């Protein structure tokens, strides 16, 4: 193991492993150079063995990005914090391995008939969306979708922006069919907060990114849920209404390999399904719009601000893309 990447001597150090492996990457190749600056940028360090494997994966991702971007897609791929991982590795660390009862969510949302504005962006209406957070190597996306939706709901009602505890949901919300780093659903997490009588703040119950024992203290709860709006299965128009009229909306969808390398533009895929039992990632819709006749959602992710468009992505709207209308919901706060 070596601590900091020695850019200057990395060439000499590399000679051994690369020469032995008949690797396609030659010493000092642009790929190697790019990989080394990426490692510096993301403060990555590897063992000798791992370095080789990571460099190969990085180069293969780079090829995928190039091929994709050369075609006429509505979104671009790019190098990001996950560029040294295969999708299989990424999936194990960040996504749900088990389906999360998405289609079992009973709806109670009654949709009106519109019309609604052609575009909405809660980020631009005022201070209604909290900064992008980072879930780390834990399948806890559902907790970030949950806190994001509730933080917005409270800000919209009171003008006060809180930062709520994801770790409390990871540690304490099991009785509502949630499973910490193994997954959960925002609708079930809102129900937990409602019946638990509150959720603590980020500072009093900070994020650790791993499963732990419940440390909830009732006296320190700062946010409360009065009711939960569950949107009807596959009713994407109801999601539009809810985002236009009420609140950012939590939803889940199926992440496939082309999404891992997303950089910007309107994500649209033929490799994902539209079925509720395939969704594996929860996020937060904070708005919608349309570009060159293509409608999209504006979505807040929980993979840090250096992924995608400052932590956000756009995804095609109106086609139940990747099952995104499978189990959308939002909380009604008690204030
Ligand atoms: C690329 O996509 C745009 C927008 O969908 C379309 O107008 C254009 O004709 C396409 N170009 C090619 C070469 O397919
Ligand atoms: C789905 O719901 C059933 C019945 O409530 C429960 O037993 C099961 O654990 C749930 N599955 C998940 C992944 O939460
Ligand atoms: C909303 O969904 C949650 C989680 O699936 C469920 O516990 C709750 O009963 C649903 N609400 C209504 C009113 O059906």
TrEMBL record:
This is Pro-cathepsin H. Residues 35-90 form the Cathepsin propeptide inhibitor domain. SMART domains: Inhibitor_I29, Pept_C1. One of its GO terms (molecular function) is cysteine-type endopeptidase activity. The lineage of its organism: Eukaryota, Metazoa, Chordata, Craniata, Vertebrata. It comes from the Eukaryota. Gene3D superfamilies: Cysteine proteinases. CDD domains: Peptidase_C1A. GO terms for cellular component: lysosome. Important for the overall degradation of proteins in lysosomes.
